[in-house]
Specification:
By secondary structure, the chain is of the alpha+beta class. Helix content is 46%, strand content 20%. The chain has a seven-stranded antiparallel sheet, with helices on both faces. The protein binds zinc ion (ZN). Zinc ion (ZN) binds next to α3.
């Protein structure tokens, strides 16, 4: 068993979603009982999902969205159902919990993709707290399997051109590998009901999502907030709004942001 190996954020997300193989899930569960660091991260992940679900309830998802989520869940064969169930009823006992995780994931996906009906209904386009909630939801969703990148490359000459034709704006993609922040890739995501560029970097096992989009608002200095174990740094400069989000510690994330802002 890989007792000594820490679980990656992706593995923990997959574990929460019940998307790991039974063997791998057992490894993670075992590791969580002995590793403070990973179990803290696991708790943070659960707390974030709970907080986002609470937010979604407050927004009162319309029936059409609820129906869409139910349909999507019903139509998707459960990935957590092992082909051949090992060792009697162990996996069956887990299923209600696994199922809930799946719903949380589906709701998060719908929250981001369906923000037109759920979130925009009760707010103005530019109010920062809601944008922050969207950015955080997008970050958490990106940690789930296969949601991180649309283009995966450590070369900025692959990532930057990928946005051409997908957005009316091309994000800055500096090379920061030598400073310890290798590029992972990029994706287009939705924040405040509009498509935005997301460039992904990493630091050790931590992922850093950098959101950016053009804005008419004036410059704003770096603002740092911490929510549910994630650090978020926000600023506006020369017509571009940027958000940097990660579970990386605040001081390293700040260093990264300063490198990014000056390149
Ligand atoms: Zn660990």
């Amino acid at each position: 068993m890989s007792q000594a190996l820490h679980s990656t954020h992706e593995a923990l997300s997959a574990y929460v979603d019940g998307e790991l193989t039974p063997d791998r899930a057992r490894e993670v569960a075992e590791h969580l009982t002995t590793c403070m660091q990973c179990s803290a991260e696991y708790e943070t992940l659960l707390a974030t999902i709970a907080a986002l679900r609470a937010n979604l309830e407050r927004y009162q998802a319309p029936d059409v969205l609820r129906a869409r989520v139910r349909t999507a869940i019903a139509a998707t064969p459960s990935i957590s159902e092992p082909a051949a169930r090992p060792e009697g009823g162990a996996s069956r006992r887990r299923r209600p919990w696994v199922w809930q995780g799946g719903i949380a994931a589906a709701l998060l996906v719908s929250a981001a993709l369906g923000s037109g009906i759920t979130l925009l209904a009760s707010r103005g386009r530019t109010s920062t707290p809601d944008v922050a909630a969207d950015v955080l939801a997008s970050h958490v969703r990106s940690l789930m399997p296969d949601h991180l990148t649309d283009v995966r490359s450590s070369d900025q000459h692959n990532v930057k051109p990928w946005f051409n034709g997908r957005l009316d704006y091309s994000p800055n993609v500096p090379r920061l590998e030598e400073q310890g922040f290798p590029l992972v890739g990029g994706r287009v995501d939705y924040v405040g009901g509009r498509p935005v560029a997301v460039v992904v970097y990493s630091r050790r096992q931590h992922l850093i999502n950098v959101f950016s989009w053009p804005t008419r608002l004036g410059d704003a200095p770096l603002g740092v907030t911490a929510t549910n174990g994630y650090n978020m740094i926000h600023w506006r400069s020369r017509g571009v709004e940027r958000w940097v989000v990660s579970d990386l510690n605040a001081s390293e994330l700040r260093s990264f942001t300063e490198l990014l802002a000056s390149s």
